[in-house]
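pasting input
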Amino acid sequence: MPDEELLYDLADLFKVFSDTTRIKILYALFDTPRSVNDIAETIGATQSAVSHQLRILKQARLVRFDRDGRSLIYSLADDHVHTMLAQGMTHICE
Amino acid sequence: MPDEELLYDLADLFKVFSDTTRIKILYALFDTPRSVNDIAETIGATQSAVSHQLRILKQARLVRFDRDGRSLIYSLADDHVHTMLAQGMTHICE
DNA sequence: TGATTATATGAACGCATGCTCATATGTCAA
DNA sequence: TTGACATATGAGCATGCGTTCATATAATCA
């Protein structure tokens, strides 16, 4: 049985993936870096809602961003995110 | 971009993993099938709380059970669950 | 600098969710 | 069948969370 705190962290990680808006954001960035407004249009959500969720995704280190002029271009942090999504999707599609 | 409904299902799957009690249950069953009361003692939770969460884990097909006398012996449904947990843990520990 | 565009943030509201407590259901043993 | 044990379930409560709305911060361009 892993350490109590580790289990909390694990639950917290999965919690980040447990919201549809965040899942949509992650898929929007799956192979294309995008600005906040671009994400919002792509997934059909408010700029504010997207920004709030990006904050959570940033804290969990699932996304990163670079500045381009006045825009912030977000992308998936690393390949682990692809793997997590793919793993979950595999389980669903059985 | 995957189908809208698929994204909901994916979020729902992750949601099941996103609670500490359920994570503890899954780890308690990681390599040892256990009865409900055994689980409750192992993770330090109420029988009722465990039963409620087992219901959710069953619906998500993450656990299964066999009857042994008056006890129900729960175990992880398949190897996918191990993989999901391991994948998440790997991400945490980097 | 001032205006405009892009993003972030805070408060408030509504909804979902996990727990406890009490009780129901179900199974076995005598 | 009755009593005891094992698990499930329902109601009610408290907490957490995602959205919207309004506004703040930040950066670029004229």
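fyi Chain B has a mean pLDDT of 97.
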